[in-house]
Amino acid sequence: MLAPSLVARLRTLVGGDGVIDREEALLVYECDGYTLERAVPELVVLPRTPAEVAAVVRLLAEGGIAFVPRGAGTGLSGGTLPVAAPVMVCTSRLQRIESIDVVNRRITVQAGVVNQWVTNAVRAAHLCYAPDPSSQPACTIGGNVAENSGGPHTLKYGVTTNHVLGLELVLPSGEVVTLGGAVEDRPGYDLVGLVVGSEGTFGIVTRATLALVRTPQATRTLLAVFASVDAASEAVSGIIAAGVVPAALEMMDRLIIQAVEAAFRVGLPTDAGAVLLVELDGLAVGLDRQAERVRAVCTGAGAREIRMARDETERAALWKCRKRAFGAIGRLAPNYCTQDGVVPRTRLPDIVRRIAAAAERHQLRIANVFHAGDGNIHPIILYDERDADQVARVLAAGREILEACIALGGSITGEHGIGVEKMAQMPLLFGPDDLAAMVRLRAVFDPEGRANPHKIFPDAKVCVETRAPRRQVAL
Ligand SMILES: Cc1cc2nc3c(=O)[nH]c(=O)nc-3n(C[C@H](O)[C@H](O)[C@H](O)COP(=O)(O)OP(=O)(O)OC[C@H]3O[C@@H](n4cnc5c(N)ncnc54)[C@H](O)[C@@H]3O)c2cc1C
Q1: What is the pLDDT of residues 29-77, one digit of tens each?
Q2: What whole-number distance in Å separates Cα of residue 472 and Cα of residue 461?
Q3: DSSP state of 369
Q4: Which helix (H) or strand (E) is 70 found in, with range?
Q5: Ligand 1 neighbourhood includes 139 CB (under 6 angstroms)
Q6: Most buried among 191, 302, 310, 401, using CB within 10 Å?
Q7: CA nearest neighbour of 89 among 456, 465, 451
Q8: Is 166 in the pocket of ligand 1 (CB under 6 A)?
């Protein structure tokens, strides 16, 4: 139980409306997009500036109090679950775009700036921020940095780590450090690279300097319709093997197509086994030739129909389907759990078969939408959380799918992070020495283990008070 005097001092630091301690208001913060496990923090603090974040963290350090950083709460691995950390520090009110340097193509933003706002701010200068998670209208740059987020267009442009030049980080001691800077390839260790993807376990990111890229001169967006996921997967490998690197190469299976079509009515073929959304971008010259190659590969793999968006409106409609696919899932079941794994591209047909087998074994419906070009799969397991047996089957199927990813030469996360969800699977990928080395590295930033404790590493026996369904966070 936090001391009332501490709560009062926090109120002095961030203002009365920056501290949430009412039970019903705290419920908003009981989980992120991974809803299988829930825990309510004792207190949520919402600073408005980087300096306020540092002051809050210094105060928590005085009392040796652990905290959980949080951005918009769209994470999909339970990274914001408050486990053995009574205070949640939200950076969502740090919303200033501090500087834009069009000539050098960079922008400095506070951590709570929403991903989409970055591109909105520089669009007129024909620039954009390339990492585009499907959650981009909501997720924050702080969360993107912590998770090293990807997105449909990261096949060609790379993930968050490839676009972060510098960071300001508030260490768990309250000390503020600046890592990297406005120029690339600085001497010394790549500490920015280390912090990107550290899931809030090194402290709280308050500012980021991001690299911007030129908005492509032209795009071609194609939708290829296949009888099966197998055939579409063959086309994915074929396109890359043909020397074409699309900006995006996304797959949706029948269940997703049907849900999306019911929601948005853009004319997707609901009897198809799978569709591929292929986007090519770059200089206008040569794009049509690339599009022809993509057409040829898809036809060779058995595509029954290939459409090309005729204008920006049609292109936007196709992307709306893909980026809002998760929302459309609400039509299929009361709850869903989005898994995130990676396999080598050529093993996509194998993993899809194993996902189907897991669905059958556990009598569950699993829809698939994935960044196919990266081999990054997102099986969406549908369920009803009021049915405890179903929940147990969801967890078992999720584990089996991740184990299958490892068996096929892949990994347990492509972009959503480990959080609490996948801690138990870490020893399947890493030996005890590797894990111990990572824990030691973490201790350099956070010797007392107060920043987002009990995440990533299966290090403790901690029970979380969860609402139905009940489950232990760390076993
Ligand atoms: C519909 C939907 C679609 C999605 N699509 C994608 C996708 O295409 N690609 C992808 O990669 N992800 C995707 N995600 C997952 C999620 O949006 C990303 O992980 C995103 O980066 C999380 O940002 P957030 O601001 O919501 O962070 P949160 O969920 O609030 O936090 C995520 C993690 O970051 C830490 N954190 C947050 N802010 C900070 C900070 N300032 N300093 C330090 N640590 C911090 C938290 O402690 C937590 O561990 C999707 C999620 C949804 C719901």
Answers
A1: 999 999 999 999 999 999 999 999 999 999 999 999 999 999 999 999 9
A2: 9
A3: E
A4: strand 67-70
A5: yes
A6: 401
A7: 451
A8: no
Cα gap 248→232, rounded to integer Å:
14
Q: Tell whether omega for the bond before 133 is within 30 degrees of 0, i.e. cis.
A: no
Helix (H, G, I), strand (E, B) or coil at 157: helix
68 ligand 1 Cβ < 6 A = yes
Instruction: Please list the ranges in the chain whose pLDDT falls under 50.
Output: 461, 463-475
How far is 291 from 238, CA to CA, in rounded Å? Answer: 13
What distance in angstroms lies between residue 308's CA and the mean position of ligand 1's atoms? Answer: 32
| Cα-to-centroid distance, 241 and ligand 1 (Å) | 32
110-163 per-position pLDDT tens digit: 999 999 999 999 999 999 999 999 999 999 999 999 999 999 998 999 999 999
Q: Which residues contact 185 (CB under 8 A, 6 or more apart)?
A: none
Ligand 1 touching residue 237 (CB < 6 A): no
Establish whether residue 150 lines the binding site of ligand 1, counting it when its CB lies within 6 angstroms of any ligand atom: yes
Q: Which amino acid, 287?
A: L
Phi-psi region of 419 (alpha: psi -120 to 50; beta: other; left: phi over 0): left
pTM: 0.94
Burial class (CB in 10 A: 0-12, 13-18, 19+), 320: middle
Question: How many whole angstroms from 35 Cα to the centroid of ligand 1?
Answer: 14
- For 287-298, letters b (16+ CB in 10 Å) and e give beebbeebbebb
